[in-house]
Amino acid sequence: MDPTPAQPLIEFDRVDFAYDARQVLGGITLQVRAGEVVAIMGASGGGKTTMLRLIGGQLRPTAGQVRFDGESVSDMSHTRLYAARRRMGMLFQMGALFTDQTVFENVAFALREHTRLPEAMIRDLVLMKLHAVGLRGARDLYPAQLSGGMARRVAMARAVALDPALVMYDEPFAGLDPISLGISARLIRTLNDALGLTSLVVSHDVDETFAIADRVFILGNGRLLAQGTPEQLRASSDPLVHQFVRGEPDGPVRFHYPAPDLREDFLGRAGGPGGAR
User: Fold this and answer.
1) Which pLDDT value is given to residue 137?
2) 167: buried, middle or exposed (CB in 10 Å: 19+, 13-18, 0-12)?
């Protein structure tokens, strides 16, 4: 069932999540509408990848609900969750291609695993997806023969092989040179619009991500600090948003870890390691 315009494809409703005693997310409420490219940004360790895992059902919230197309992911039966995951594509950090399979076999894997399509149709679909990312001619290469940017594009073709409703990108630009980064960013937007997808992008690359995103959510200390269009966030007067968007080394997120007064340390009066004996 396709989502209705009034119903968000993804919804976080007052979601908390903790790993044992460590609180990772607290009170997260947000919605992602069908057809959008939405970015989740923030400092490392802020819970961004955890949010993707909650959507996919690999994790369950400590409190609140995560809904996919109106249905609580935590309440889905095994069969329903399996069906929902078929409507989700995932691009992992660094691509995570099968190293012992060719480019063609990597993209064909999901089609063979989840459908009963004849091989002739699988071949055509794989070549179509590879053509969309500019790598139809690389079908017989192995991952070790690809550049980092090419491997990421193969991973994109694999992520959209089943024509999912949602594609989640976990740090899709990590480790790429400027040319490959620009190509990958443009592809996310192009594939989203051409295939009628919804895209959720976890990234630290402000400029490239802002260039393709419809809306951006910024997390900090496990909470949703700001949201809006890229233009709204660039114009924000919030000190933390300002620091993050501009990449400034000091601000609400301090460069220096809390420490005793400099004079105390150098005069040897502070206790503990390196202090007075």
Assistant:
1) 95
2) buried
